[in-house]
Amino acid sequence: MNKNHPKYLAFKKKDRIRFQEKFTELSSRAKGILINFDMQTWDAFYYHFLINHDVGEFDVLRNVGNKTKEELLTFARSMLNPDGQYTRELEKFEFAKSSLSSLARSALRHTGISLFETFYYRLVIEKEVIDFKHGPRCGEKTLPEVVEFVEYFCSYLGVKRPRKENVIYFNPDNPKIPFIADLKLKKAFLSEFVNLSKNTKANLTNIGADNMDGFYTAFISPKSPFNVILKEFGESTLMELLRFRSTMKDHIKSKKTSAR
Q1: Which of 171, 181, 166 is nearest to 248 (CA)?
Q2: Where are the domains of the chain?
């Protein structure tokens, strides 16, 4: 497998329409759960299921039947894997996981990487460092088993398990050094983005600023043309964008920075 991915789980804007079509086909119970977690749009679903991974492990939801959990997972995979791009890797992941003890599987589930999708997104795409030693349900006997599984499957995917913290590689005083948002900053952006008005989100999407890197380039970087861009927006959208820009600048200032 090519090490220079991400190969799977890309956010596709065209999926917004497909999401709404499939959403209407869900049972009332499944729709209610997604609405309760504010996951009734593609942007919000992608954020919570993969990026923030706070809801994605449907198996740990309380007071939700197995049938509904399976329906939600099938729904997620129908969006993320519509043509079976990663079916082989998914089957390999499930087979390898089935050989683990129940305690190790529980540790993966409560750590939020017991699904191929969450495992792949966090460890391969975001290269997130996960502290299994102090993780939930991961005692001294379970820890080696969990780490061995993670090491094995990362190797299968052609990557090494991340061991160092991600940093923001940019120097705000030197525009020649590129800006690369780390995982926490991407989470912060999307958690703020999903609360914007539909009109503002649409405007940002149209200019490719619906992600942290694109927004930084358009509105924050030293060479940002934001003064020109803002002239294209109405008063209410303009004020919301200025507030959003100020919020994101505060997030960036609060992060540690490092030159490449």
Answers
A1: 181
A2: 15-156, 168-258
How far apart CA 183 and CA 198 sit, in angstroms, is 25
Mean pLDDT of the chain: 79
| d(C-alpha 219, C-alpha 149), whole Å | 42
152, two tokens: 């094995």
Q: Locate tokens 């100020």: which residue?
A: 246
CB 51, CB 33: distance < 8 Å: no
- Tokens standing for residue 68: 């509904």
Relative orientation angle of helices 235-253 and 198-206, to the nearest 10 degrees: 70
Length of the chain: 260
174 DSSP β-pair partners: 171
174 phi and psi, to 5 degrees? Answer: -130, 95
Instruction: Quote the pTM value.
Output: 0.62
List, for residues 205-228, the tens digit of each pLDDT value: 888 888 887 888 888 876 666 666
Give the C-alpha separation, 31 to 39, whole Å.
Answer: 9
| Alpha carbon of residue 205 to chain centroid | 17
Give, in order, the Cα–Cα distances in Å from 32 to each of 27, 42, 72, 91, 209.
8, 16, 11, 29, 31
Of 232, 228, 250, 241, residue with least CA distance to 201: 241
